[in-house]
Backbone:
């Protein structure tokens, strides 16, 4: 049945993006070595930066300053997140859409896009294929349509969690869908979702109006900006923000993202769990689009490093929109999650087709490596590929998301849990080459853990995994 949205905003909703202040800070702040070094130190102490301070980092233009910024971001990543990178995959459920976002291959005016919504059976097929690759975390992605009601989305989540192929299971389902009303969020929350992601696309109102026609639901800037506030009112305290980089000046978008993070923290006591910074990719029908603010690779590096330092506690997601060369470099600047083995064609995971067909997907993927290859790449770069879902399943979200607040938490819990999930992956899904590399990595990480009862516990769990037990966590 078609869904009729209640268009009431959250209690006390307002436009918290102060564009005038952002523009004025960006134009008046000049690069200052003493100041940015102080700010690196502040951030390395895990203190979030204010808008003024973020503008000071964004004013860095010299090569010396940029290199120091990159190094500070690398250091912070190590201190806050250790060497784990969490892996997930997007699963596109349907591309019907009532909106007409100029940059998107799903926009309603595009007649050449092949429209499809997965049936329950097709979702099961897709999830089976994903589990058979070793995936444990999914993000379900939807166009905006009255058919994709909260009940429909909730049913999809239930179906995904019900699939168990061999040793596989999906242990965390995140959502990227249109902003909903409060009742809608409650319905979805009841199915046990992880993060609810909404990208503002651009925080710059005139650019927002340029790419999102006013006569569409998405054309309403405040409805979207307030989307995660309503999610919080609906009981979802695990929120993901993002901006589609390339619609306006990337420095303005960084300030917008930081404003959004500060707003959520001030209003609810909980900042966003993740920040995404997708860059616009080629898409069906995009050839004629006017995009004067495209962000090049060098600026993109600076964007990611600046965000890392401005919001030290927030997870950062870099998607497979980026090509392997960019991912290789940027992953060191504070990224904590990536998707891998990604297929965007609706129904693409069970088809096992390596090519891309833009008429069936939202945009072009830049990194088409499979999960096994991506895991090997991460290990080569010094990271532990992690499939851990422990915090969320132990109820550590929102205010209770203690991962970073408790001294030593990462060392004690996150790294061992990453190793346990990696060991499962190696045993059930990895190629011989990946397995060999992974076993060496696990041993090396174990060697670095202090002798004692805790280490014995980790070793005992690894042994149980080798004997066939699954889903062991600390
Ligand atoms: N339809 C919902 C919405 O717009 O919020 C759900 C998400 S949409 C399917 C996922 C995200 O993909 C959008 O929020 C946008 O940031 C991004 N996207 C759209 N077109 C893109 C393109 N050409 N290149 C890269 N990312 C794109
Ligand atoms: Fe629809 Fe989302 Fe694409 Fe906009 S970005 S056209 S809302 S699917």
Residues:
């Amino acid at each position: 049945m078609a869904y009729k949205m209640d268009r009431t905003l959250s209690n006390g909703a307002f436009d918290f993006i102060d564009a005038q202040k952002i523009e004025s800070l960006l134009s008046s702040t000049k690069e200052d070595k003493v100041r940015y070094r102080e700010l690196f130190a502040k951030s390395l102490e895990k203190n979030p930066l204010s808008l003024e301070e973020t503008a000071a980092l964004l004013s860095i233009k010299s090569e010396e300053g940029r290199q120091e910024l990159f190094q500070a971001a690398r250091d912070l990543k190590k201190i806050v997140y250790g060497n784990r990178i969490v892996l997930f995959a997007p699963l596109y459920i349907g591309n019907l859409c009532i909106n007409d976002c100029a940059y998107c291959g799903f926009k309603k005016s595009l007649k050449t896009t092949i429209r499809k919504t997965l049936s329950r059976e097709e979702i099961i097929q897709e999830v089976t294929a994903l589990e058979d690759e070793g995936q444990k975390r999914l993000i379900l992605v939807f166009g905006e349509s009255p058919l994709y009601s909260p009940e429909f989305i909730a049913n999809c989540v239930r179906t995904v969690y019900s699939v168990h192929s061999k040793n596989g299971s999906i242990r965390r389902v995140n959502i990227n869908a249109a902003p909903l009303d409060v009742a809608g969020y409650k319905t979805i929350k009841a199915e046990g979702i992880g993060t609810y992601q909404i990208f503002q696309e651009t925080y710059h109102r005139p650019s927002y109006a340029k790419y999102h026609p006013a006569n569409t639901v998405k054309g309403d800037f405040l409805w979207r900006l307030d989307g995660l506030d309503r999610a919080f009112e609906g009981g979802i305290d695990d929120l993901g923000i993002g901006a589609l980089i390339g619609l306006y000046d990337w420095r303005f978008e960084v300030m917008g993202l930081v404003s959004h993070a500060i707003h959520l923290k001030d209003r609810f006591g909980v900042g966003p769990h993740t920040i995404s910074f997708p860059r616009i990719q080629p898409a069906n029908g995009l050839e004629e689009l006017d995009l004067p603010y495209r962000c090049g690779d060098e600026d993109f590096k600076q964007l990611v490093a600046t965000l890392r330092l401005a919001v030290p506690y927030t997870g950062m997601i870099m998607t497979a929109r980026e090509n392997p060369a960019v991912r290789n470099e940027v992953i060191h600047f504070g990224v904590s999650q990536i998707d891998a083995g990604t297929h965007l064609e609706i129904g693409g995971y069970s088809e096992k087709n390596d090519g891309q067909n833009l008429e069936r997907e939202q945009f072009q993927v830049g990194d088409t490596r499979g999960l096994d290859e991506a895991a090997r790449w991460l290990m080569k770069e010094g990271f532990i590929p992690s499939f851990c879902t422990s915090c969320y399943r132990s109820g550590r979200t929102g205010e209770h998301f203690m991962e970073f607040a408790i001294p030593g938490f990462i060392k004690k819990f996150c790294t061992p849990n990453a190793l346990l999930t990696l060991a499962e992956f190696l045993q059930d899904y990895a190629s011989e080459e990946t397995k060999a590399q992974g076993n060496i990595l696990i041993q090396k990480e174990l060697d670095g853990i202090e002798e004692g009862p805790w280490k014995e516990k980790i070793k005992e769990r690894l042994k149980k995994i080798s004997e066939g037990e699954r889903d062991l966590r600390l």
